[in-house]
């Protein structure tokens, strides 16, 4: 294969000699999609699986000739991601989120690693967490990481997780040195809405495990989540943002069990209706 070149940080770099597929799942990501497309310009194909966005996500994405835009009804994050993997034509995959930025140093490292007989079959990437445009250095985010680069033939997302998905790799897993930038929300309402969407899926997981919530789940677990983030994981060092993040995560834990209660009540209601009939 002939070498291809592109400019990065005013330097000339060899483009990937090993083809790579950049995957993304989306729903109303018009504010992030262009940055993502710019970040993965090294990929040979960009596959976006969209949950029927109602904003300009599709319009912006399709301006890029590398993009294959596929619509699929959302059921859970794991299924959405594994479906995306099934569409990839290449062995090596990157699977970043739309709210994650890939700095030039990380991009260069990905290219260099995959071009030079990779030692591992999947790679963790550490994340720099931003909230309200502030870099959060503590509050449980010190060691935040996720597998973002992996071989298709040896990796898929674990089927027992609907949210907070985990890549299961049948091979060796390593770490990239450079971090990605994880941009979260600019206000509390949006961030809590995101956490609550995760809590609803987590409640479905717990329902499948037949967990019945108790006083411990309603009161102790949310309190512990707050103390864990704000005290044990040094959230107080992040100032008011550390307090806010700790509080919102505690609320989302409490809501998780309220959502689980709702599932059981709905089941009971349906059973009652059937008996009456």
UniProtKB/TrEMBL annotation:
In what residue span(s) does the Glycosyltransferase 2-like domain sit? 21-146
Q: Which UniProt keywords apply?
A: Transferase
Record-level Gene Ontology MF annotations: transferase activity
Q: Which Pfam families match?
A: Glycos_transf_2 (PF00535)
Q: Which PANTHER family match?
A: GLYCOSYLTRANSFERASE (PTHR43630:SF2), POLY-BETA-1,6-N-ACETYL-D-GLUCOSAMINE SYNTHASE (PTHR43630)
Family membership, please give it. Belongs to the glycosyltransferase 2 family. WaaE/KdtX subfamily.
What's the name of the protein?
A: Glycosyltransferase involved in cell wall bisynthesis
Organism whose genome encodes this protein: Algoriella xinjiangensis
Q: What is the lineage of its organism?
A: Bacteria, Pseudomonadati, Bacteroidota, Flavobacteriia, Flavobacteriales
